[in-house]
Amino acid sequence: MNSLLKLSLFGSLVAATAQSGDARLHARSSAPKCDTAASTLSLSDPPYDNYFYSDCNVAAQAVITSPLPQSDLTLIGPRLVVAWPAGDSGVCAYFAPQNGVNGTLSLEMVNSTVGQPLGPVYTAGANSSANPSVGIQGVLRFNSSATLTVPILGSIRTIRDFVEGPSLLHSEIQDAIQFVANNDGSASLQRTWLDNVTSTSLTFTPYSNGTNGKVTVSNRTLSFTAGDYLISASMNYPQLTALKPSSVLNSASSNLTTTSPGQAAALSFLSYSEKLLAGAWRFLTYFGRDSMISALLLEPVLSSGNGSAMEAVIGAVLERVNRTDGSVCHEETIGDYATWTNLQNNITSSAMGCDYKMIDSDYFLPVLMQKYFLDNPVGQKRAASFFKYLSLFSLSFDLMANARTRTSAGLVNAENQNLTWGDLALISAERIMRLARPFAEKQTKANLIHLKDGQVVGEWRDSEYGLGGGRIPYDVNTALVPAALRSTAALARQGIYPKHKKWSKLATKYAQVWEEKTLDFFKVSIPQSKAQELVASYKNESSFPGPDQAASITDDVVFHAVALDGNNNLTKVEVMNTDDCFRHFLLNTTDDTQLTPFLNNSATNIRRTFPAGLMTSASMIVANPAFGGDSVYAQNWTTGAYHGTVIWSWQLAMMAKGLELQLGRCELSTNFSVSGRYGQAKNKDNGNVAPIPAFCADDSVYGNVKAAYNELWDSIEQNESQLSGEVWSWVYRDGDFQVTPLGVLPPPGGGSQTGKFCLPC
Ligand SMILES: *[C@@H]1O[C@H](CO)[C@@H](O)[C@H](O)[C@H]1NC(C)=O
Ligand SMILES: *[C@@H]1O[C@H](CO)[C@@H](O)[C@H](O)[C@H]1NC(C)=O
Ligand SMILES: *[C@@H]1O[C@H](CO)[C@@H](O)[C@H](O)[C@H]1NC(C)=O
Ligand SMILES: *[C@@H]1O[C@H](CO)[C@@H](O)[C@H](O)[C@H]1NC(C)=O
Ligand SMILES: *[C@@H]1O[C@H](CO)[C@@H](O)[C@H](O)[C@H]1NC(C)=O
Ligand SMILES: *[C@@H]1O[C@H](CO)[C@@H](O)[C@H](O)[C@H]1NC(C)=O
Ligand SMILES: *[C@@H]1O[C@H](CO)[C@@H](O)[C@H](O)[C@H]1NC(C)=O
Ligand SMILES: *[C@@H]1O[C@H](CO)[C@@H](O)[C@H](O)[C@H]1NC(C)=O
Ligand SMILES: *[C@@H]1O[C@H](CO)[C@@H](O)[C@H](O)[C@H]1NC(C)=O
Ligand SMILES: *[C@@H]1O[C@H](CO)[C@@H](O)[C@H](O)[C@H]1NC(C)=O
Ligand SMILES: *[C@@H]1O[C@H](CO)[C@@H](O)[C@H](O)[C@H]1NC(C)=O
Ligand SMILES: *[C@@H]1O[C@H](CO)[C@@H](O)[C@H](O)[C@H]1NC(C)=O
Predict the structure, then answer these.
(1) Does residue 302 form part of some domain?
(2) FRET partner for 134 with CA separation of 20 to 30 A, picked from 409, 597, 599, 654?
(3) Is 62 helix (H, G, I), strand (E, B) or coil?
């Protein structure tokens, strides 16, 4: 069993077709021929049906939403979305039944000679320098007469402003849509972007082979009779360079393209030589944290070397680092939304923008760089040319510093012109060393890493209720900072930062302090009887219909607060959580007096059933507010909240992998060489001997951790069909936790939400 791939963010995708090439036959003759067959993927997760199409000319996704009898019609309406990774672009069309009865209109893509169901669209540009217009087509069936109520053409971000926000529409974008009735009986919507160059169009043509529909245009509205329509969505923004399934995976894992074609196709759809995308369909663009976590978890199967998936991730992050303060970019703004955003600032430009509000992303970068440039043999050889040094590993430090070639950054992010990726890695590492120093020197709460001023979010729990208003997040302070420092020390030792040779020792010293002195600030310890009372009162306050599990609490409950300095004057935001996984996955801590109870409590909390712990039959939830003891907790961390009592697939992956790594430390023997030349163990003062942690010899603790690992795996396997999504939730029905998509539950603040890695929504 290849546990890693099973653990992949893209988990087990249900259906895949290594397309026969049928669709290609129908591409316009002007489309350049592709070396490999088109790749397609269909994923159904009612009320959502997702279809992916990609070949060498275009990559796009179509999502059809069609309400089910049980759907909440205030959240779910008939809708077509088409999304292109290129420019983070998209088309969205909402429909309403003409008879006015919500819930009676359903939409469906049907197979046709155009594709099963999607085929490509390709129209050469007006001249040789113009981009072709590319997209997808397929047959859409309306079961009853319908009206197109809201069209949005341009950027996915504009569509998200409408879908996720308070139904925001921007008149400078909406008013530019042209409604055209064509002579052949078809109707088109067309919009030129704010850049005055790019345009998007969506055409409906009655499809004569089916139940012949009729579309009419009147007063900026389209009306449809029941029937079949050939829809064609296209736009002429430059496409990204897709990595083929065979070049996303490394050669040892290449058989996954045949053994798990769906997973491979999904991963490939998200992988481009310029960047890896965070997820379909809302997030088909660069997200720093998401791509680095994916790369850390998937590293054993991802391709390495020039043009590889690993380098796409690291390169995309470095390219977007803020050259002034070294922050890693969280999300990029590109395409039509970039022009629009610039316009809001009275700037006429389509230059991309970056959002630097997250504080966690900085710390993943050196960890990933170590994993690739030091621990991966292919990466070791690539460091020199990647960083534009002549030869990193063969030249002396001083020579290297002078051997920098000309600029390589700035191609995507013009702000970083005249710098190399090496320069940007250095600037980012300098930031980490600068921010880590105060606490390394004086261990006060004030010296812990806080969210940026004026920001209410800053790490992965980045929704309104994620950290309960906390300013000092647990994951960043107890795991990410020390892990980044360990990696910075290792990278410095290897000459990646020639200016800072002393970092090798200094960052190690800092790391030790951050590893050992941060946990106590977050520790929450609740006596057994008090803990039993808390779960009982939580059950009442939250009207959770299942058992309170008080009897399973057989000792004091110990966990670490998800953050410090929260809302309602909370010193600690006492929400039990899964963020222990960062320490398990990223650190080999050596203080046994801390490690043994930490692992033991973490395992216990995983194993206990909610609300006494984190486990449910829908798998391990990321936050449990039951021990907060204040009703503000139960209100905000709910089954409908993005970071509430819900399940995140990458958290399952990181927890399982982290426990595996910790248990793996017990297998080390004195002649075991840890992680090659650069492993932490090798650098211990006691020579080449990896110290075996004390918990390994404690049968009770070791057994508890192992049981947590196995039970977590059982739970992951039971919920395998969910793993391709970013997040899912549950309802308690018939005596059990039953899996439910998050998007169909009302969130605490209103609106609707679905996750980022969510391929099937
Ligand atoms: C149908 O749904 C739309 C969109 O949610 C809403 O504006 C409208 O009021 C609903 N109509 C009826 C009759 O419920
Ligand atoms: C459409 O074609 C695909 C691929 O051949 C097939 O898997 C799917 O079942 C078909 N759908 C329908 C509704 O027939
Ligand atoms: C697009 O054209 C309009 C009208 O000529 C002009 O005002 C605007 O600045 C142009 N936008 C860009 C990004 O060039
Ligand atoms: C209509 O269907 C027939 C047979 O079912 C097929 O040969 C033909 O190509 C189809 N035409 C179109 C436009 O899809
Ligand atoms: C067309 O739309 C406008 C603005 O929404 C409205 O005032 C007008 O009455 C509509 N005309 C018809 C014929 O529906
Ligand atoms: C795939 O290849 C790897 C390494 O070549 C091998 O260990 C593994 O068993 C293969 N898996 C399958 C399902 O063939
Ligand atoms: C980059 O960092 C500097 C210093 O913190 C800040 O002033 C600037 O706004 C940042 N750049 C962007 C694009 O946010
Ligand atoms: C843009 O210009 C308008 C009109 O001059 C002004 O009111 C507005 O404050 C400006 N916006 C920004 C962000 O500078
Ligand atoms: C890069 O250098 C060129 C030439 O010196 C200069 O014109 C340009 O402004 C620089 N770009 C940045 C972003 O500093
Ligand atoms: C819970 O949400 C309410 C309403 O937004 C807010 O006032 C309160 O401070 C929140 N409590 C916590 C602990 O986040
Ligand atoms: C928080 O503390 C401040 C100052 O002590 C007090 O005025 C305020 O009422 C407190 N807020 C809550 C929600 O307890
Ligand atoms: C921790 O030790 C394990 C050996 O059990 C090794 O595989 C892993 O790379 C080490 N992790 C770190 C962050 O040093």
Answers:
(1) yes
(2) 409
(3) strand
